[in-house]
Design brief:
7-stranded antiparallel sheet, 11 strands, mainly beta, single chain
Length: 176
């Protein structure tokens, strides 16, 4: 009877196969924390709400590395959403590109001196609009955040106004 010899290569290749078969779930070897890999913090952005009259208050939907994203859903003869980025650090830099509409339009916003308390309006989509955004934020101390997310207002998920506001995506944060 032959004996199977276990080596580091055999174990790691089997582990990689199991992870790939499970849908590529992130795994930090030794720590078991899927929120942090190779020094990067990974975060899910998930804001799905109903519009209310009066408007829902702003809700923080992401906060890492000095960057805060806040959103609210508004019902005023249609559905609207406000999405803003705020800085917790002075002398930071932010850049945002939003592609939306048909035909596709591109809006860009940036601030090279994004100070503590400053805010940049990202949302403001009218009823039935949707968009994809790419955001980068950097501080003088070397903290960097990159986020990619979609925004949608109106009949999302095939419904008719059940939950008309959506911001969903991912963010990576490289600590200073």
């Amino acid at each position: 009877m032959s004996r199977v010899r276990r080596s580091y290569a055999n174990v790691t290749s089997t582990l990689a196969l199991v992870i790939a078969a499970a849908g590529g779930t992130a795994l930090a070897v030794g720590g078991g924390n899927a929120d942090k890999v190779d020094g990067l913090n990974a975060a899910k952005i998930d804001y799905v709400v109903k519009a209310k009259v009066p408007p829902t208050p702003f809700k923080t939907i992401f906060s890492q590395g000095g960057l805060v994203l806040r959103a609210r859903c508004i019902e005023e003869s249609g559905h609207f959403m406000d999405l803003i980025a705020k800085s917790k650090q002075s002398n930071a830099e932010i850049q945002v590109s939003v592609t939306s509409g048909t035909p596709a339009g591109l809006d860009r916003g940036f601030d090279r001196d994004f100070d503590r308390g400053d805010q940049l309006d990202i949302g403001g989509l009218p009823t039935g609009s949707q968009g994809e955004a790419t955001l980068t934020y950097s501080t003088r101390k070397g903290s960097h955040v990159s986020a990619v997310f979609q925004m949608d207002v109106g009949s999302i998920f095939g419904g008719s106004g059940v939950k008309p506001c959506l911001v969903g995506g991912t963010a990576l944060h490289v600590p200073a």
